[in-house]
Amino acid sequence: MRGVGDHQAAAIEAWEEAGVRGAVCATPLGQFGYRKRRRVGPPREMLVAVYCMLVTEQAAEWPERHQRVTQWFDLADAADAVAEPTLKLLIAGFAPPPRLSFVDRMLPEVRARIGRSVPMLGWFQSLLPKTGRFFEQFDAHAAELTSGAAALSRLLHGENVDEQIAAIARHEHAADDITREVMQDVRRIFVTPFDRSAITGLVNTMDDAIDQMHQTANTIALYQVTEIQPQMRDMAGIIVEAARLTAEATPLLRSLGKNAHRLHELTERIIKIEGDADAIHADGLRALFKAKAQAPMDFIISREIYGHLERVVDRFEDVADEIQGLVIDHA
Questions:
Q1: CA distance 280 to 266
Q2: pLDDT tops 50 at residue 23
Q3: 245 Cβ partners below 8 Å, 6+ apart?
């Protein structure tokens, strides 16, 4: 489509054909080739880029609703329903962001209450060898990252602005609680799965990412920003994808040797989309400068939002570096 990026064209097609809207990552998930049959003339060789979208809405009516039937599939059934081999692999290999259960969210508070109400139990537990809950804490933090990134994307798409700002704050506070628990465990746990500096380095970079999401939301709220640039939304789509990749990576840390190859693929993709975010950031600033040449305060405020978004993506690159370091040291 002329005048729009490929990922934006994919989003338009998703709306027209299935009535779905959401945040699209500007970096393709992969691509595949096929022979397209035409009514007139020989088949053409086509190359298709596949993009991932965080769906935030499915409308009751959409342009091609009378031409198609929509249906949601889980990943395995979706892969089975597709004939193209490469697309089948792309679907089968895609991992959705995890959903943190209520029990997982409440477990740190329950443990703290038990320790306060039954001091003897806490004393007895302190005598036992400990390995900690670091993997569960990484998973829980990654879940807060994905939820915060989703809320940030909705915020930049203008959906229930006050509600999304409040949601980002909640996820940031929950992530802070998990980070504090990790720091406490690093000091008191006798046996740790990795070097203590590696554990703190990973959780701190993850926490820095959601802190920057919170700063973005605070800036929008402080200056009551209502005009969001298209490139800001594109950067939000990359942030959503970076959070999803992080959430897929953290459970694999339990077995670094077995999962080293997949962790390498995930971290390489994070680094790749960070580079694409840099290009989007530069394009956005150029467009902003042209549009706001006569409104310097608007330019300054929007540039600050761009700065926070860029730092969010940079922090995810730091997360990828931390994970790569763990693989090199321990796999």
A1: 21
A2: yes
A3: 266, 267, 269, 270, 316
Burial 187-219 (b: 16+ CB within 10 A, else e): eebeeebbeeebbbbbbbbbbbbbbbbbbbbeb
Report the chain's mean pLDDT, rounded to a whole number: 90
Q: State the Cα–Cα distance between residues 154 and 236, nearest whole angstrom.
A: 9
Q: How far apart, in whole angstroms, are the C-alpha atoms of residue 179 and residue 156?
A: 27
Q: Residue 3's Cα: distance from chain center in Å? A: 27
Confidence (pLDDT) at 208: 98
What are the Cα distances from residue 44, in Å, to 49, 57, 206? 16, 34, 45
Provide the token pair at 117: 């109400």
Q: What's the start-to-end Cα distance of the chain, in Å? A: 45
Q: What are the φ and ψ backbone dihedral angles of 150, each rounded to 5 degrees?
A: -65, -45
Q: Which helix (H) or strand (E) holds 55?
A: strand 53-58
Per residue in 54-112, pLDDT (tens digit) is 998 899 999 999 998 889 999 999 999 999 999 999 999 888 766 655 555 555 455 55
* DSSP conformation class of 27: S
Based on its alpha-carbon atoms, the radius of gyration of the chain, rounded to whole angstroms, reads: 22
Contact 251, 65 (CB under 8 A): no
Q: List pLDDT tens digits, range 192-214.
A: 899 999 999 999 999 999 999 99
pTM, two decimal places: 0.87
Report how far residue 23's alpha carbon sits from residue 235's, in angstroms, rounded to the nearest whole number: 10
CB 224 within 8 A of CB 301: no
Q: Give me the residue label for tokens 């500007």.
A: 26
The tokens for 108 are 């740190």
Helix (H, G, I), strand (E, B) or coil at 30: strand
Residue type, 291: A
Contact of 225 with 299, CB cutoff 8 Å = no
Report the distance separating Cα 258 and Cα 39, nearest Å.
49
3-state helix, strand, coil in the chain (%, to 5): 70, 10, 25
Structure token digits, residue 323: 């994970």
